[in-house]
Design goal:
- This protein is α/β, with parallel strands linked by helices.
- The protein has a single domain, classed as Alpha-Beta Barrel (TIM Barrel).
- Helices cover 28% and strands 15% of the residues.
- The chain contains 11 helices and 14 strands.
- The strands form 2 sheets. The chain has a 12-stranded mixed beta sheet.
């Protein structure tokens, strides 16, 4: 049996799953409709190959669009998946379910002790997935080379502003220089292309769209603007204050010639545009005003072991109970498949009946 550096089996088998483990076998009709494919299919013809793994709900910033200044009540330590449990689930996803991309997220994933070992162990999987990381960059510069050596392929770093004072206002922390250093460190470590994630807030940093793109183009970063989504802890998001994709595109077009990128978007969340004829590009992730649900290829694992088939889902499937019960790898994989089969055709943000998820983004994972 293959074991990790932690001395645990990657693809262990256990006894029969008890009813309390959360296993949902589905009814006969549902199973017949789904068929016998080993992959993470849904009833609308999509297949999930991209697994977003939240390592913690904690964060060392307090971004105004994410959480209050005092922070949140973090998940108790005993509710978080252990490294062994995380590796077992990732192994199941890659080995049995056809997942080919793993992205570590948070909260802030760098706060997870042992993250380098997790990256290293995932890179050793027989069907090695692409491994990426989404981070706020705090402390990444001094660890970038270690992450590259461990097997990390690329990194997304959040940067909403080029102004130190605006950064402090947005994040409630004076750490702007750390993020700039993280970008430089990622390039030096060969974690390219380095991507920047930026959220624009009306009246705060929305005037910086062009400056952010000029900064990215000059340094070879791939910039992605993300529409602010209804995933804040205070449930204060409202459509009127959101800077839309149309507004972002219009603002950028005042300084740059944007043309649709020639390559197919496939399941990528960003709509790409060539900048001044290329080769530089800029992306806009317009989850609210230009939904791309029909091409979604993601599945999500929260830090406490819940599967979410959509970022905005109201329903979670508990794999932690199966891990800590007697669930076998086959049974866990089966429960995961059924969870994804029930994925809705879209997130429903634009439906009057839409309800924001109870969990904020920091507890779901990006």
């Amino acid at each position: 049996m293959t074991t990790t550096a932690l001395g645990i089996p990657l693809f262990g088998t256990r006894g029969r799953a008890a009813e309390s483990t959360g296993l949902d076998t589905g009814d006969a009709g549902e199973r017949a409709a789904r068929g016998s494919s080993p992959f993470l299919l849904d009833s609308h013809g999509r297949r999930a190959i991209d697994l977003r793994v939240s390592l913690t709900d904690k964060c060392n910033l307090r971004c105004t669009y994410c959480m209050p200044a005092e922070g949140l009540d973090w998940l108790p330590g005993q509710e978080l998946l252990t490294d062994e449990e995380l590796l077992r689930l990732i192994g199941i996803a890659v080995d049995r379910l056809g997942v080919s991309e793993i992205r570590f997220t948070g909260g802030e994933p760098l706060l997870r002790k042992g993250i380098l070992v997790l990256v290293q162990e995932v890179s050793r999987l027989k069907a090695r997935p692409e491994i990426s990381l989404t981070t706020n960059g705090i402390g990444f510069a001094r660890r970038a080379a270690d992450f590259a050596a461990a097997g990390l392929d690329r990194v997304n770093i959040s940067l909403d502003t080029l102004d130190r004072d605006v950064f402090a206002r947005l994040t409630r922390r004076d750490r702007h220089s750390d993020v700039i250093a993280a970008l430089d460190g990622a390039v030096a470590a060969g974690l390219t292309p380095v991507k920047i994630n930026a959220v624009l807030l009306r009246g705060v940093n929305d005037h910086e769209a062009g400056d952010l793109l000029a900064f990215a183009v000059e340094r070879g970063y791939h910039l992605r603007f993300i529409e602010q989504m209804p995933l804040d802890a205070g449930h204060e998001w409202n459509r009127a204050s959101m800077v839309t994709a149309d507004e972002i595109q219009e603002s950028l077009s005042r300084r740059f010639a944007l043309t649709p990128h020639r390559e197919a978007r496939a399941g990528a969340p960003a709509e790409l545009f060539d900048v001044d004829g290329g080769p530089a590009t800029v992306g806009i992730i317009a989850s609210v005003t230009r939904p791309f649900c029909g091409d979604c290829d993601r599945t999500r694992l929260t830090a406490d072991g819940q599967i979410r088939n959509c970022l905005f889902s109201q329903i979670e499937t508990d794999l932690r109970a199966m891990l800590r019960g007697t669930g076998t790898d086959d049974e866990i994989a089966d429960a995961w498949r059924m969870a994804m089969w029930r994925k809705l055709p879209g997130h429903g943000i634009n439906d009057p009946s839409f309800l924001q998820p109870d969990r904020p983004m920091s507890a779901i994972g990006g």
